[in-house]
Amino acid sequence: MDRKIFFYAGFFLLGAAIVLIPCVVVIGLRSNCSDKSPQSTVTASLATTPAGTTPVTLTNTIATIWNESDYQSNSQYYQSLTNSHYFNQTDNLRLDRLSSPQLHPVDGRSLIYWRQQYHMPDLRGSTTTLHWQDLHSNKNVQLTRPIWGKHDQQFTWIDKNTILFLSNRASSDLTQIFQLTLPDDLSSLSGFIEPTQITNYSLNIDNLLVNRNATRLAFSCQVYANLDIEQTNARKQAELDSGRTIYKFDKLYIRHWDEYYTGLRNHPFIVSINRQTNGIFQLSPYPVDVLFNIDSDSPTKPFGDAKAQWSFSASGNSFAFTRQHDEDSSVAWTTNLDVYTVDLRTATQSPVCITCENIATDTDPSYSPTDENLLIYRSHSVPGYESDQYKVKVYNGSMNTKVTLLDNWDRSIQAMTWSPNGQSLYLEIGEEASNVIYYLENIYTNHSVDLLIDNGTSHNIHPDATQERTFVFTYESILEPANIYLYSWNGSIRALNHNTALLGKVILSKEAEKFSFMGANNETVWGWHVPPANGTSQKAPLAFLIHGGPQNSWYDAWGSGWNFQSYSAQGYAVIAINFHGSDSYGQNFTDSITGAYGSLPYEDLKLGLDYALANFSYIDGNRVVALGASYGGYMIYWIAGQPEMSSRFRTLVNHNGLFDMRAMGYSTEELFFTEHDVGNYTVYDNPSAYEVYNPVNYVANWTQPMLIIVGAHDYRVPETQGIGAFTALQRRNITSRLLYFPTENHWVLNPHHSIAWFEEVFNWMRQHAS
């Protein structure tokens, strides 16, 4: 249900706009605890001591106004603390978020990257700025001024002195294109560099891509398909002035993820650019809408971006992009994305589809940096299946041919990056719960691959233009938050120093252990064990975590939301099973869950719990709590109806889980999820396929206390799924609580809501598993 989205969840969770007044509604009834009144409000605080000890509450100070004058880094704040404390979600949110490292385009001796940071210590605001670091001296310089609520994003290092990027620093508060002019010696910079705004459109610019020789750029705005930027803005204003708020639909999608589809589309615009005598870039006055009059998005919604889905050719004269076929309602039950190319030298040239023979997904085109006619892209072969294996295709435009690389592999390629030589590729691949990096030597003659990074979770590869097998990337693990690393040609790896002061003042678990056992079908199944941060010398309760997807995995990754360390620091052991259906263990293992939602994964979870209790003797088998989100929430409901399993848990915690599969088949937005996963059936063609593993049919067996959490803007698993389950619990007089987030979607994005989420969950767990 959320295989891709959880893969990138860390970035989205902390890129959200800050809501000044947190809005959480708690509805509950402790039917078996009548001496305790229901909790009706939530404060921005979090108990931070291990389970079984007296909790200490940390209350955040409210900052009503902030600006650059009250700037404090997390390093300054944590250096001011005298004592260490157990890690908690507030600490997690205070971490600097680092992303998009790019090496110097000429000499590779330095890099620039994004750093997102929150207002210290209260998290009431965030800012994203550009930073530069010399890789030899380790000198670090913050280039752009931190202003709360202002976020720089999507930069391109044009040459040694010029960067183009997006920011909402414009006086209009709209996101526009800015230029940063760098001095020759950045190491001596004593203040911030004020960027120059070079666009002033009436709409936000959402994506930016510049070609290699800086003669053209592409950007996206949300426009009506048959209107330009200014016409769209005028129509939006007229609709606002009308005083009417009415949505009218003649096709699907009605809504997608957390947004109602009211006609606005992501369209790519192409403009020529030239540098003026003062060094500032100027754009041609009439941007060309590549998808004009086409009711479709590029980048695709909700998570597509220009970095992955757009590409300029080596000369900059051709442009490739991914688009979905949104013109009719079939978009809701198909996964057909296609790659298009357009020759920019001819003004009347229409985009040409190069993948339309494949009715499954084709996406992420990337032109060779040296060959004008060559591009690679990722491709599925099974229509309607978002979790199919991604393979890499090489398209030669001069001969109109396609070749599949590494066709005998059974792992899915998550991302690929050209080496500057135009012959080699860096590949990101999910492999046994790690996102690893391979290097493919030569796409033309030698398809041998070398494993460069074999553990943790790696993303955002940016190669050195001067040295093969040298690149910067982001890396994280269960034990380490995301950091930027340099991989050198000789195999050496080193990290930038970020978040060291914070990590030095928090107590974390130092161990994350992989284990395996014989699961369903007598096949090997893997899981994670993380011991409590306060040690294993005494019996400890267990947090038994069930991942969503279901075609996803508990990766060796830090996590901004479901962070293992957050549970460990509360004194819980953590067990997380990658059951049948999980990705990163081969496509057959992933596919095995189709038509088997409540069977193979359920058996794996039973056997995995047996293994954990038998092999980690410090775990108290009488104090076990199961928690799951999305498909993991489905499994919580399914377990609740199976007495042999539900009786093993003191309580259950469910975040946006699937309660009624038949209702889901008519109310979720992406119908291909439910239709594929029950065996490629619609509800009306084969109702029994939706009923065989439907939790709603087993409510009569429910006995265990349950906390249910829903987001009102969750259109993937609509809120009525959780409300229906809570109604069932209340009707059966079972101790239960509904935690309702009126402004959240499938995730919890607001940082204060995230703190409240953990506070409510841990309070519930302590109440029932102490």
From TrEMBL:
Alphabetically ordered keywords of this record: Hydrolase, Membrane, Protease, Signal, Transmembrane, Transmembrane helix
Pfam family membership, one: Peptidase_S9
Keyword set includes Membrane: yes
Alphabetized InterPro entries for the sequence: 6-blade_b-propeller_TolB-like (IPR011042), AB_hydrolase_fold (IPR029058), Peptidase_S9_cat (IPR001375)
TM region(s), chain numbering: 7-29
GO molecular function: serine-type endopeptidase activity
Occurrences of domain Peptidase S9 prolyl oligopeptidase catalytic (ranges): 561-769
Keyword Phosphoprotein: no
SUPFAM superfamilies, per the entry: alpha/beta-Hydrolases (SSF53474), DPP6 N-terminal domain-like (SSF82171)
Alphabetical GO biological process terms: proteolysis
Matching PANTHER family: DIPEPTIDYL-PEPTIDASE 5 (PTHR42776:SF13), SERINE PEPTIDASE S9 FAMILY MEMBER (PTHR42776)
Protein family (similarity comment): Belongs to the peptidase S9C family.
UniProt-recorded name of the protein: Peptidase S9 prolyl oligopeptidase catalytic domain-containing protein
Organism placement in taxonomy: Eukaryota, Metazoa, Spiralia, Gnathifera, Rotifera
